[in-house]
Amino acid sequence: MVVVRPVEELIEVEDPAWPSLREMFTRAAVSVDVLPVDPVRAREVLFRLQVSAYSTLGALALNTGGLLVDRGWLRILGGGYGGLPDLAAVNGIGEPGEGRGMLTVAVDVLGGQFAVNGGALPGKLGEICFFGSDTLRWEPIGGGHSAFIAWAVGGGPADFYADVRWPGWAEEVEGLPADTGLSIYPPLWSAEGRADIAATSRRGCPIAELVALHVDTAERLDT
User: Rounded CA gap, 91 and 131, in Å?
Assistant: First the structure.
């Protein structure tokens, strides 16, 4: 039986994570834009997640609409902002504490995903896994959610994404809305797309559509 804690209990904790996170963002090695959040919506998201503000996950859900990291290349999810979904909605959590085999916590501009392994993904429980638009498969990358946030704002994406970035990517990505990514053709999972990323065709597309397309493509290629 799942014990559902009231939202006040989730918020009113000793040593909440947000002050130290906020300080980390001011010292970040890359740009970090903290998106505003509707307080009522944030409380509802926290309640549905059933995590407290002591955790990094809970602090982001309660205090941010999400984060745009490294010129917006990474969109780390929080309490929701405009068309950028909140952590509960993107994971289909309708009732408080609903269990999931994975918990998506971030997406990138190409439609890749980062998720916490709840048993449905490779690797250890609680470990962050990545589904890349170039590989179309889930792979554990090590560490939990808090370590992932520190890695993201500490400049980790530069090496991680070096093979799928092109000259001028920053200017191209920076002007995109929070819920919009880049659809690339030929796709990065194809030999043609990987051969010369700079020469590919790129257009704005809702990130939710990109993510769904990559997942669907992976399933079709696996059959």
Answer: 15
